[in-house]
Amino acid sequence: MAWALFSGRSLRTANPERILDTDRELRAALDNRILLLLFRQPRCPRCREFEPHLRRFWGRLTDPARVERAQQVGLVYVGHDRCEQEHLEYLRDMARAWVALPYGDGFGRELQQRFGVSELPSVVVLAPSGSVLVPNAVREIRDLGISCFQNWKEAAELVDRNFQEREEFQGWPRRSLTDPLRRLKYRLWDREEEEGEKEEEERRE
């Protein structure tokens, strides 16, 4: 599960006095959501250029003033901050629902290596299962806006709990007619698939 990446760890919130440090809190914040891992450096020009696009994208998915029901999405900030003060300044300004790895946490480097992050900014998109939907969604978020989120949901086969609570939607199909095409484009890049490809290449050699 995607939230389990952070099991046993602490995540900071926009409120400096609140830290998520139990699995119960982490699960409540991150479970059953499309999870975005944001890798950025505050003074990076490309990161600063992308930031308004990301905040607009987030607001259109979650802001009560814009949507009737917030989408099931979470974001973890994996910062490349130069000092703790810079890190805290970004946390104070970030969206309320975002969480962040604490400054100096070496797990950030592990995540960067695990998901092959080679440039900043990067947004790794994970399905609730933990499978990678998009290795870097910066361009999609910037160019497509919230339309790409529906693609991610369908690729992840995410069950929207909000829809389940409303009787008028109970008879609706869960997938669209374009599901096969979307799943082809946004197929899950999980470890088993990658390992299978490596084994196949070794056999050919």
Automatic annotation (TrEMBL):
Domain Thioredoxin-like fold: 32-132
Gene Ontology annotations for the cellular component aspect, listed alphabetically: mitochondrion
InterPro entries: RdCVF (IPR029520), Thioredoxin-like_fold (IPR012336), Thioredoxin-like_sf (IPR036249)
Pfam families given in the database record: Thioredoxin_8
GO biological process terms held by the UniProt record: photoreceptor cell maintenance
UniProt cross-references to PANTHER family, sorted A to Z: NUCLEOREDOXIN-LIKE PROTEIN 1 (PTHR47109:SF1)
Name used for this protein in its record: NXNL1 protein
UniProt source species: Cinclus mexicanus (American dipper)
